[in-house]
């Protein structure tokens, strides 16, 4: 094994990457927190000062110069605080590791999904969180893991399905994937990667040991832990390679444990079904047969009547030579439910067209606009956007789901127009899910406003 020590430089680089993603360490270290606040407060003071001055006022130059000088110094102080924090974290980590006392502090987190699947958390302390991040990156590099995003997979699948030829589609799901990975087999697979350093291997064994102590079994990976996700990807890397290169496979994608393949014939479909079962069996994994789906198109690539392909929240159907991409019933219902919840919360405030209602009118308008538009991801410095288009960009522009959302909104406005002041009613009628999706409308809200908007869906606050 290649012994690459976890260094101060590597920790600082991780901190810089996290900061660019809007996940800085200011909440985990008081000194970094103070330096970060000072930088933010100086910027706010600058914006306040500059707004008070006319554009032609020569004092603006002095204000800008002073701000740039202060910002440079404050950034230097923050960088120093980060370096000290990372140095202290690395020292504590090395001491704990050398004394065989390092622990991730693994514990059970919230249960998620309809099956109440348990998730896990590790300690957030810098001397634990950053070694965990470094180990995850080391696994990713060693196994050359380049997991595709949900959107890129869907776009590639769309392109493959949108062709006029006979083909077969096979979709499978691995039964309880994370909970089924055997530790012994995983460690054997890890041993074939000479690039994996000894410190990372030691941390992986520690994580597996802590999980075994909680669950009482040496099978399974703790969901919700970043290192687990990379280990799971590594575990299936050979499986992916064999399926991708198998004769007749035109397209292969796997997103965690959801797998979809497009094949050039029904004959190859039968071969691939046997291969999937065989390869998963060699990894001590099994298919979730209730989620297994197969389909063979006609010579024009169209699907049998009533048949649809669902994958990663999208629903694909093909008839008369045209591929249509919609949302699954579950995904569509989630967005419709959010709209209904926002509308009903406004009604619960006993709105009136003449009496003020403590800002609930404007809040409803912003909530509906937020659902129909797109905005910058909270706490992100990399301009990552979320919203109707950015979360569902593969949706067919004239998809029925968009018209249904507009129908819900228009019906509500018609039924309750008498409760809305003229200006509010005008603003509500200007909102269109279909148009804002087609135009990729981008909205700007302050973080505090976003928290107010989302409160209705997180905690039921009006």
Explain what you see.
With 462 residues, the chain is of the alpha+beta class. It has helices at 8-20, 30-51, 59-98, 126-142, 150-161, 177-180, 183-190, 198-215, 226-235, 237-244, 266-282, 329-347, 360-372, 388-391, 400-416, 422-429, 433-438, 447-458; strands at 107-112, 117-121, 168-173, 249-255, 258-263, 293-296, 309-311, 314-319, 322-327, 374-376, 385-387. It has a 4-stranded antiparallel sheet, sandwiched between helices. The chain has a 3-stranded antiparallel sheet with strand order 7-8-9. Helix 1 packs across helix 3 (59-98) and helix 4 packs across helix 8 (198-215). It is flat. 29% of the residues are buried.
Brief sketch in words of this structure:
By secondary structure, the protein is an alpha+beta fold. 54% of the residues lie in helices and 12% in strands.
Number of strands: 11
Large-scale geometry: flat
Uncertain residue segments: none
Compute the average pLDDT.
91
Give the terminus-to-terminus CA distance.
57 Å
* H/E element sequence: HHHEEHHEHHHHHEEHEEEEHHEEHHHHH
Cross-sheet strand order for the largest sheet: 4-5-3-6
- The helical percent reads 40-55%
Please give the largest β-sheet: 4 strands, antiparallel
Helix and strand composition category? alpha+beta
**Percent of residues in β-strands:** 5-15%
Question: Number of helical segments?
Answer: 18
Query: Could you tell me the radius of gyration in angstroms?
Result: 27 Å
